[in-house]
Write a structure and sequence with these properties.
Chain lengths: ~375, ~375
């Protein structure tokens, strides 16, 4: 089974693409204590909790479970306190560890709880959604949503290892599969041209059960590899890692404007990538044909390609409050060729507004 | 003016013992953005806010202030959110920074707010209490108190620099001065025998205004140096740094048992050191004469030397829940000679109980 190393200078770790039931043997050398907490939500734990806990117990751990309600609206300081309470009651110390079994919400919350309990205990990420497998579980970003916004409060806290079992995607709702594809497409555009081409040739890309297992493994491995490479070259998001925000500047604004209700994160990122691609083409730094290929791939992934009910001025304003702002300038990551992108600090706001205007207009749903 | 380097591998920084009005020139090379938030409480800001802010503005920064209520009972997640709100409203980004002007509560809260806002922004510590100068401001420990306990939730987040102005101690309440001395005595016992001897020879040690400025500077410099040396050899408290918990295992239990109302942190640590010293002597690893010298110095510092109303069994139970627990064994830091201490994992609980019993007994107040 493939493994990918994330060679961070102080906290290197391994991403294992393997069966869930191997968790015990993988964790044993990494967590010296005997107590573990598994944080999950009831739906996911119902599917995969039993084999996971059995494997950890077979490896000698005393395992308790902390179930939190599913959904982004529970990614709050209050749920964080629930996890801290559980850590306190089960006497999790610095030799113990926490396992995040779930999608991005479980991963971000559990990672932040581990980052802040006793000023930092070990966390193992076991992502169960495509989005979490290729993005959220790798790189140590953790956090919660607060009244100020999404993910403005959090910490960098690297996992001790990541276990990705592709077979758990069988129970993933199809909208979540398509949403995760947005991040996979992102890696194709900014980092790995071969991944982009591979995606273009997957028949029925939008329907996970129809994707052959060997192609699924290839998509997951290439995506995790891309994320690992970028993160290991820039752990704290001071430079290169900003590339991973491709599609996210506009994407976050769309999510905020729609109160996180209309679009999933991946759908918003897909829209953001389409807009950023059109912006890059408009500015003459990306070819029209590559921008069109990206738009076609986003559509083939079953992602929305327009946002008909949004006001470009509202989106512009929201981007001014985004954390990727430096001294009031909105930063954009823009592709240059397939597999490469660069940071642009001073894009003319009129150009951005013009692109947004095109995407809010009705009709031409597949352009 | 003395400077001390904290040579951490990834985040080295300098402790400056100098005038408050030099803050602007010291911060300028460290924080590239133009926005700063000063977090303080109204009392301290009333004394020292004006020259601090003036110096920062003269260095070209746009400065806003976020005042939080004074007192340990406000070291909560709720106050943390107040600081995050202020960061959001004043658009603090990753190029900006946060200045903590105050004692341990302001320093810990502001440090944790900086650690978690946008997953980490720069913080400068400007401690105004003796305790904060010699302990809390150095080493990157940040956190809040939660229903689970004191400082169980927090993060390691190193400051970009620390500015210590000894003259601000003129307005420090005398009980806080004496409390801070507990940590200074601690460094003498665990790390710096010359500091211990110096303390023994300070006339009127318990009364700050009577301590000559050059001796005060020597106490501060040696204490900060001790903390910097220990911290730089063990940033994340996996080994050596545990020495700094000398007196804290019993101290924390005393604070918890009295709901943080009867004793200040320093007073509780003083009691904890006295108990740990007696325990070490009882176990034959420290001389009775050194234990007696420590007890005499704690008394000379005007710190309490007994805790007459506490139940040893309650304290024993509370120590089982302390975060310095590893797999149920309570850890004690115990002195071996003046200037040296070691970690003991498996002290017989009966011996601990016997020492506590001596200290809860009435009479013999100065022993």
């Amino acid at each position: 089974m493939p493994t990918i190393t994330v060679p961070l200078p102080t906290t290197p770790y391994t991403i294992h693409l393997t069966e869930l039931s191997r968790i015990g043997e993988l964790v044993r050398p990494l967590i010296p204590g005997r107590r573990l907490v598994v944080v999950s939500n009831p739906v996911i734990f119902g599917h995969y909790g039993e084999p996971l806990v059995a494997s950890l117990r077979a490896a000698g751990y005393t395992v308790t479970t902390c179930l939190i309600p599913p959904g982004e609206r529970f990614k709050t300081l209050k749920t964080l306190q629930t996890i801290h309470d559980h850590c306190h009651q089960t006497r999790i110390d610095r030799q113990s560890g926490v396992i995040a079994l779930g999608g991005g919400v479980v991963g971000d919350l559990t990672g932040f709880a581990a980052a802040t309990w006793l000023r930092g205990v070990a966390v193992i990420q076991v992502p169960t959604s495509l989005l979490a497998m290729v993005d959220a579980s790798i790189g140590g970003k953790t956090g919660v949503n607060t009244p100020q916004g999404k993910n403005l409060v959090g910490a960098f806290h690297q996992p001790r290892c990541v276990l990705i079992d592709p077979t758990v995607l069988a129970t993933l709702p199809s909208r979540e599969w398509r949403s995760g594809l947005a991040e996979v497409i992102k890696y194709g555009v900014i980092w790995d041209k071969d991944l982009f081409t591979l995606l273009e040739h997957v028949p029925h890309l939008a329907r996970q059960p129809k994707v052959p297992p060997e192609i699924l493994m290839e998509l997951l491995t290439r995506s995790a590899q891309a994320k690992a490479e970028v993160v290991s070259k820039d752990e704290k998001e001071s430079g290169l890692r900003a590339l991973l925000n491709y599609g996210h500047t506009i994407g976050h604004a769309i999510e905020t404007a729609t109160h996180y209700r209309t679009y999933t994160h991946g759908e918003a990122v897909g829209l953001g990538m389409k807009a950023a691609g059109q912006l890059a083409a408009r500015l003459g730094i990306w070819s029209d044909s590559d921008a069109a290929r990206q738009a076609a791939l986003i559509a083939a992934a079953g992602l929305p390609t327009q946002f008909p009910h949004l006001d470009p001025d509202v989106l512009m304003q929201l981007m001014q409050g985004d954390k990727k702002v430096q001294n009031d300038h909105v930063r954009f990551i823009l592709p240059t060729t397939l597999g490469h992108a660069t940071l642009h600090d001073r894009v003319n706001p009129d150009e951005v507004r013009a692109v947004l205007q095109e995407l809010v207009s009705k009709g031409d749903q597949k352009s």
